[in-house]
Amino acid sequence: MLLRMSKTMDKKIKTLRSYLLIMAGTGILAFAIKSAYDPIGLVTGGFTGIGIMVRRLTADIVEGGIPIWLTNLVLDIPLLLIAYKLKGGRFIGRTLAASLLLSFWLGIIPECDLARGDYLLAAVYGGVIAGSGIGLVLSAQVATGGTDLIATLLHMKFRSYSIAQILQIIDGAVILAGVYVCGIRASLYAVLAVYLTSRVSDLITEGGKFSKAVYIISDNYEQIASAVMNSMNRGITLLPAVGMYRNEERSMLFCVVSKKEVVTLKEYIRAIDRHAFVIVTDAREVLGEGFLEY
């Protein structure tokens, strides 16, 4: 009984955390759009990019143009209905919340030009801020709707292409359309903003504490393993291997260390066996004892 109550409480806390992340992330993303992208005309893809173009194209028809939040909402509603029909209510639950919250924030956050007309600053500010917002939303395991949802639905038809590839094509088309509406200069800086957004969102979702994975092939593997465990206080794994050139069995060591520790590790290896074969690669995220907690 107590275990069931504990699981129920954990589930509620996890759900609450997800919605708080969605609320904060969409608010930060909306701020980036209203304070960096929209004032200078950086079309970075997505329905909000279409909204920026629509607002500029309708500026002579409607005072101030059709607001971005309205375009985003109008485009999202039929898409969410299609997704509901094809994938069911569980699929669009949090996506619906993210879409509505983004339109809400776009409607209430006032426009302010942080970059003061500077395209480079707008791309940098917007990319970093938008990447932070998107990273928080992705941490809740949800997308903000829009072109992300289109890519997901199209993937059901075009299985040979990944969702990321389809999304790149769609957002690329939106950015190209932005060349016509906002000019080539704004579109080129929009590409920079998209790159920064991707890097920052990856940093948030995958963590910034990169480690190093090290593979070691040496006849003195026992001494190297002992140095790693006793002197560096790190775990190490022995993997059986076969050298195909001579078809002989070898022993390969595998361990994960921090970026600072890899220098010390290479010094130990060099002191024990100068002819050891060593491979050092990046480990973008390491969870477990001695590293990040789950």
Can you describe what's shown?
The chain is an alpha+beta fold and about 290 residues long. Helices cover about 65% and strands about 10% of the residues. The protein is built from 10 helices and 4 strands, in the order H-H-H-H-H-H-H-H-E-H-E-E-H-E. The chain has helices at about 1-40, 45-55, 70-85, 90-110, 120-140, 145-155, 165-180, 185-205, 220-230, 260-270; strands spanning about 210-215, 235-245, 250-260, 275-285. The protein has a 4-stranded antiparallel β-sheet. A hairpin with a 4-residue loop joins strand 2 (about 235-245) and strand 3. The longest helix has about 40 residues, at about 1-40. The protein is elongated, with a radius of gyration of 25 Å.
- Strand arrangement across the biggest beta sheet: 2-3-1-4
State the secondary-structure class: alpha+beta
Query: Largest sheet, described in full?
Result: 4 strands, antiparallel
Radius of gyration: 25 Å
Helix/strand order, N-terminal first: HHHHHHHHEHEEHE
Percent range of helical residues: 55-70%
Give the beta-strand count.
Answer: 4
What's the end-to-end separation, in Å? 26 Å
Strand % is: 5-15%
Can you tell me the residue ranges where pLDDT is under 50 for at least 5 consecutive residues?
none
What gross morphology would you assign? elongated
| Number of helices in the DSSP assignment | 10
- Mean pLDDT across the residues is 84
